Amino acid sequence: MYILLWLVFGAVVGWIASIIMKTNYRNGLLSNILYGLIGSALGMWLMEIVGLGRVDTFSIEGLLVSVGGAVVLIAVLSALRRG
Length: 83
Fold this sequence. Notes:
Layout: H1 2-20, H2 29-50, H3 60-82
């Protein structure tokens, strides 16, 4: 059951991040899930590096951190694709 929740959460986070970055037209469900899951981990890691603490629960703060991490991930990948 938890795997399904992670996949849905990753899809929602990736979808929101792709809308923010205006890349939604070229992303499919699988890429949104991957952006969301990897972006969530990246956002949590960046929060710890900066020293703002750790977000362990499902909350609005966790959603915002996850979307922020996914936005950073999409921005970095877009910059690498451009050359």
